[in-house]
Write a structure and sequence with these properties.
Strand order of the largest sheet: 3-2-1-4-5-7-6
Largest sheet: 7 strands, mixed
Helix content: 25-40%
CATH class: Alpha Beta
CATH superfamily: Vaccinia Virus protein VP39
Radius of gyration: 19 Å
Strand content: 15-25%
Number of strands: 7
Number of helices: 10
Bound molecules: S-adenosylmethionine
CATH topology: Rossmann fold
Distance between the termini: 64 Å
Shape: globular
CATH architecture: 3-Layer(aba) Sandwich
């Protein structure tokens, strides 16, 4: 008999374990191995294998809703959004469980001549060590909907830790009625499977990200094959903003710089490396 639960982390590990043995997509099972096998054949007709950015993300930039700064691509896969952001002047960290996906992202980066910092591992374990932030933008296209319910808590904690005040979360995930499992959270634990990903309603996303301000939440455009952008109608595209806190008396030690401050720091690093 084992009575090992003592801390909240122990509870999370116990809950992870309920999915680990039967759902390889989740990190603590054979997550990396599952995704490595998934990415092994680059010619597979998988919609998101195309080297095109999300239409939502491209639109946010074109409309000036987000501006270049430090970005984190969470569950970047072969890096299509990370590379796009780098080509638009962002300084990009991109993390994924799968070494095979990251090798592909690295090949793509070399082909197009952009720089992205690729990090291999479980984003939640790397938060606070490799993923220090602060980031002006966190992009997640297709990672969030593969997490078990309790890991939403870790996800929100990660955002809390790394997203700069004034920074944005650009999220793409399965939409109810179109793609993903509609089992309740409790039933997912009873089944012990994540069913290939979870469907989210607009209201559930609003509830989960209620500490952030909704900038946009809509169904993704279905982009035609010839489009330069990726878009599938079974997905949500959402943009949330973390409001900049009003500084209290005695605050302002610079330990959590605002989005504007990190943008200024990047601009100054760029100009000194251009001149030096
Ligand atoms: C559906 S794929 C999307 C890939 C990429 N964002 C895209 O749209 O092309 C989901 C990705 O999330 C990654 N992933 C899942 N859980 C993760 C975790 N805890 N930490 C880091 N990456 C994770 C998987 O390895 C996989 O590459």
């Amino acid at each position: 008999m084992d009575r090992t639960v003592r801390t909240v982390d122990d509870v999370f590990e116990l809950l992870d374990g309920l999915f680990a043995s039967r759902d390889g997509r989740w990190a603590t099972g054979d997550g990396a191995g599952y995704w490595d096998r998934f990415y092994a054949d680059r010619s597979k007709p998988v919609p998101f294998f195309v080297a095109k950015p999300d239409e939502g993300l491209a639109g946010h930039i074109d409309r000036g809703l987000i501006r270049p700064g430090r970005a984190l691509d969470l569950g970047c896969g072969p890096g299509r959004n990370a590379l796009f952001l780098a080509s638009r002047g962002f300084e990009v960290d991109a993390v994924d469980l799968s070494p095979t996906a990251l090798a592909w992202a690295g090949d793509r980066a070399r082909e197009v001549g952009v720089e992205v910092r690729l990090l291999c591992g479980d984003a939640f374990r790397l938060a606070g060590t490799e993923l220090t932030g602060p980031y002006d933008l966190v992009v997640d296209s297709g990672c969030f909907h593969h997490l078990p319910p309790h890991r939403r808590v870790s996800y929100l904690a990660l955002l809390d830790r790394v997203l700069a005040p004034g920074g944005h979360l650009a999220l793409t995930c399965f939409a109810t009625g179109a793609m993903g499992s509609e089992l309740s959270d409790a039933d997912l634990y009873r089944e012990g499977r994540l069913q290939g990903g979870l469907a989210y309603s607009a209201e559930s996303l609003r509830g989960i990200f209620s500490d952030l301000t909704e900038v946009e939440l809509r169904r993704m455009n279905d982009e035609p094959a010839g489009s330069a952008l990726f878009g599938e109608a079974f997905l949500w595209t959402a943009l949330f903003r973390r409001e900049a806190r009003v500084a209290q008396a005695g605050e302002g030690d610079g330990s959590h710089p605002s989005a504007a401050a990190t943008r200024a720091a990047i601009a100054s690093r760029r100009s000194s490396s251009a001149t030096g």
